[in-house]
Amino acid sequence: MAATPASGGGGAYSCETAERTREWMEALADFLRRHRPLLEAHVVNFFKGRLWELVDAEWMECLRREPVESLLKLPSGCVQEHWPATLREFVLTARSLVIPREQKAPQSLVSDIHVAPIGTVLAQGMNSKKKHEIENLAAVVHAIAKRCGAKTVIDVGSGQGYLAQSLSFEYQLPVVAIDASSHHASVTMARAERIKKHYAAKCVEKQLLMVPRTVTCHVLSSDTLAAVTLDACKDDHGGEHVRETKASTKKITQIQELTQGSPPLILAGLHACGDLSVNMLRVFVSCEQVKALVSVGCCYNLLSEDSNEDTDTCPGFPMSKAAKLSELVLGKSIRDLACQSAERWRNLTMDIALQNFDVHAFRAAFQMVLEKYFPEVSRLSPSIGRQGKALRRQRLRKVVESQMTTEKTDNFSSSTLKEQNKNTNDVDSVIHGVDTGPDDIHHNACQKFTLFKDFTLSGLGRLGCGSVEDSRLLEIWKDVQPFSEYIGPFWCLRAALGPLVETYILLDRLLYLQERSNLVEAMLFPLFDPTISPRNMAVIAWKLSANSSEA
């Protein structure tokens, strides 16, 4: 039967006005509440809690027989005609609530925008993903700054300075790069000096080349970010420098009284982590000197969250008054699900997908080992599985590399082997399942138990537990193995809810700005190709007047 795709969000929903955004968020909240058990389910408890029983039995019976390719398309809203009507309705409704993520050309935002290609010198150290992001984001930041009269860019969470350097050297904009890591600041400065020499050699006429100024600071609040931003801009030494800056206790109003001479600013952030993206929005609203904002967030699991209805608090989530007054509470596990990428799922190869499902099975079976033989350890912390992640990956890498070496001639063409030898991340893709990669083997039953045993022993070692006899591990594996076929369908159904959670978080940020509609123009814009950069939605905003209000 032919598959029926669903277009992402759109349709009946819009975020062009605050009222329409609220309506969309209410529909999302209603759908998410109805499926909260699935949202809150965690893979570590899959066998222990018999989590497949949370899902309609007819759905699971249908999906366990589906080809892997169909499962991988499910989070993108692709259904099969022979699926139960209720399952089709679930998938299509979920997809209709997701904000459209297909990349839009920067020219649709600003018609005369110039996207400067990043040359080999400026691109040093960047992978193709980073280069794609920097080219598009830098062009938009430059265009918005020009439109709003912003003279200086504040790069928040600047990392190694890729965005800051592109804005400085390609667009000749003064940039202050703020990051919590002094090492990143040092790398940024050293890299900028090398790039500066290259650009200086190219200059025919005498031209002042600006190098990003760096500030090292742990930004723990919007007040801290405002203080650091405005203080850095009023410092008129004109040189590049690295400073350790302590958190400020001043309020925004006090800070602004001392920094009236600051130039008009634009805040920019590429995947500013957790609350950092949120603090950028609050500083934009509160600081008169900040005229515009271009922010691409990430790491929703690291957001602070307040479930109280007190609209005067300042958590990372919720931000808008409407969301604060609603009863929807997410929690870390659900916010973590917001990081799932339907586009990445859709582009996994069958073998990589099967291996992802296997690793989920290993982790859930490992929890059964802990429950049975080390119950006191199992009760210590819900994040217990992450503690052994690095070591388990190292151990699994050795096993998989060995198998790839001995079996590659039976499974791959010479061209695929050449690509494998070139890509050192193949085994990592097998183990922690975030990126697509070359096809790999799918382990048979014996190999799966070997991997499970290795996974378990390395995990136990990391946790300081004793060993467990192979016969006992085999007993547990035999008990859970018949239900492992449900992991793929279950995980894909849960992954289909991830984009809804992200949409709700993004709309909450947009609505926070729209609630100040007489002062601010704001939008969500899909700036990157989501298959390259899954966190591709930018919050873009600019002031309509010189006035501002308290956050």
From TrEMBL:
InterPro entries referenced in this protein's UniProt entry, alphabetically: Methyltranfer_dom (IPR025714), METTL25 (IPR052220), SAM-dependent_MTases_sf (IPR029063)
Domain Methyltransferase: 129-305
SUPFAM superfamilies: S-adenosyl-L-methionine-dependent methyltransferases
Top-level lineage group: Eukaryota
PANTHER family per UniProt: CGI-41 METHYLTRANSFERASE, METHYLTRANSFERASE DOMAIN-CONTAINING PROTEIN
Name this protein carries in UniProt: Methyltransferase domain-containing protein
Naturally occurring in which organism (per UniProt): Sorghum bicolor
